[in-house]
Amino acid sequence: MVVAASALIAAAALIGLPAPAGSTVPSTARTLQASAFVQVPILSGVPASLPVATPDAALRSEGFLGEGGRLVERGSAPAGPTARPRVAQPAVSAGTAWKPPRFKLSGLGSFYDNGTTAMRLPRGTIVRICGAGGCILRTVTDWGPQDPARVVDLYRPDFFAICGCASWSGLTRVTVSVY
What is the pTM of this model? Predict the structure, then answer.
């Protein structure tokens, strides 16, 4: 059945191909007759610019701008604001920008190429992970790491963003704030 189906597909493909266009035999070379060409005279005494006819004054619009005219808007420009408006904004300090976490975990963090994992937290938990190089805000995507000394496994670019360590490092001390 497979061979028969393959043969039918090949036959249908050959039917759908277009036929070659044109002739397969080259045409014979022939000479062109001189009467097929027509000479075109080119005038050399034509001025560089031709005079342009001035349109009838009755056909001009009301705001016609002549040769010596100037474009001037009627009226005066509206007065703009003299100063930028001031808006009272509340002061924000670094201590009040974050709500307090439910709890904190401290320990070792390592890198993991498949996302952010934390053994003691369920998926979807929002965590703030801080290390010597800085802090990041992430969502836990999987269960892990297996070693009880490690608190979190991080996606490799995240690990090196908070690690502040050399590229051959595998572990760093982190604090995980759970929100």
Answer: 0.45
Neighbours of 52 (CB within 10 A): 6
Which amino acid is located at 86 in the chain?
A: R
Burial 83-101 (b: 16+ CB within 10 A, else e): eeeeeeeeeeeeeeeeeee
- Expressed in percent and rounded to 5, the helix, strand and coil fractions of the chain are 20, 20, 60
Confidence class of residue 19 from pLDDT cuts 50, 70 and 90? low
Return the exposure string of 19-48: e unless at least 16 CB atoms fall within 10 Å of the residue's CB, then b: eeeeeeeeeeeeeeeeeeeeeeeeeeeeee
pLDDT digits (tens, 9 = 90+) for 58-86: 777 777 777 777 776 777 777 777 787 78
d(CA 99, CA 179): 8
Alpha-carbon span 57 to 70, nearest angstrom: 18
- Six-digit token string for 22: 């044109």
